Amino acid sequence: MGGRTSCSLRVAWDEGFTSYDFGPQHPMAPIRVELAMALTRELGILDTPGVELLDVEPASDELLSLVHSPAYIEAVKQAGRTLEPNDEHMLGTADNPVFPDMHDAAALISGASVAAAESVWTGRSAHAANVAGGLHHAMRDNAWGFCVYNDPALAIAWLLEQGAKRIAYVDVDVHHGDGVQNAFYDDPRVLTISLHESPTTLFPGTGMSGETGGPGAEGYAVNVPLPAGTGDEGWHRAFQAVVPPLLHEFQPEILVSQQGCDTHALDPLANLTLSVDGQRRAYQELHQLAQKTAGGRWLLFGGGGYGLVQVVPRAWTHLLGEAAGVPVDPDAETPQSWRDFVRKRTGELAPLYMTDGREVSFTPFEEGYDPGKPLDRSIHATRTAVFPSHGIDPTL
């Protein structure tokens, strides 16, 4: 592992998280989180001074109702008991099959994310993480995109209830963070920023640059749709052109981030081409932005990611190592004990190293806008749409 900086981190983990399971044919298999936490353990990250596991309990109905309607919560409970679909609430679709006790599993993950938020808000830790969370698509009245309850939105809503005035949410999942955006679209206390594959080529079909917030909150929903095929260089060009200027201006009390790692080239459900190294650099950038703009307060979640063995465990181990202040050397080998565990649990061969062997570099957008490139047109459209609302010149 690399150099140590002073970071306190609480990590939410409970074996019950793996019961959030849509079945053997579904791409969102809980093994991905199990393997990620196993790799994190094997590399000693959870034994780092200042790192503790967080006690978690399921979110109550009252807590869930900060984001979801009572009728929807009841429908989720009922579906988990009867295993009957509910068309009105989109339970029982191909994306969101019903499964036994689905309310209990989803409420546990949501409760863990709120516990993580509480740890940061009260100052018990500078950072807190729930990699099983980040279920950013769920809407007030329906399941959507593999997500039953929207734990990031719930954590943010809880923080607002405690008196938070400025929360920034940065979503780097390959899919638009639509559920979180919808929850706070009219609320200027919450700045939502989502970098994602263009909705013209990927679910959920929203997240164009022109979606900028409701009345009184114009410029507080920020979307950067990226052309299919965008890799490390283009992704970081877009990130740096949009996210740091907004966070420096907004000065959030807490930075909340969702680190879906389905931006990877090997992800079977999407079309961006990032490497683990590019993702690792994104985590470094978010950590630095938390330090520089949010007083070091960082609440971080997992999200999507369907390269169950080759991608998710390494990506989120890098994430937790970064948050713990003990970044994992990308050239490090994966532990043999972990590889054996992977083989036993999945029958697959685990990756041998923590790197994809990529050097990540990019040319800053400020050094020249090329209107002939779709990526640059997207960056330009986003900056033009939202920067003036924050007093930032989009042409600089």
TrEMBL record:
Transmembrane portions of the chain = none
Q: Which family does it belong to?
A: Belongs to the histone deacetylase family.
Q: What is this protein called?
A: Acetoin utilization protein AcuC
The protein's matches in SUPFAM superfamilies, at most eight in alphabetical order, are given as: Arginase/deacetylase
Stretches assigned to the Histone deacetylase domain: 26-320
Q: What pathway is this protein said to act in by its record?
A: Ketone degradation; acetoin degradation
Q: Which GO terms describe its molecular function?
A: histone deacetylase activity
Q: So which residues are the signal peptide here?
A: none
What PANTHER family does the entry give? HISTONE DEACETYLASE HDAC1, HISTONE DEACETYLASE HDAC1-RELATED
One of its GO biological process terms is: epigenetic regulation of gene expression
Question: Keywords, A to Z?
Answer: Acetoin catabolism
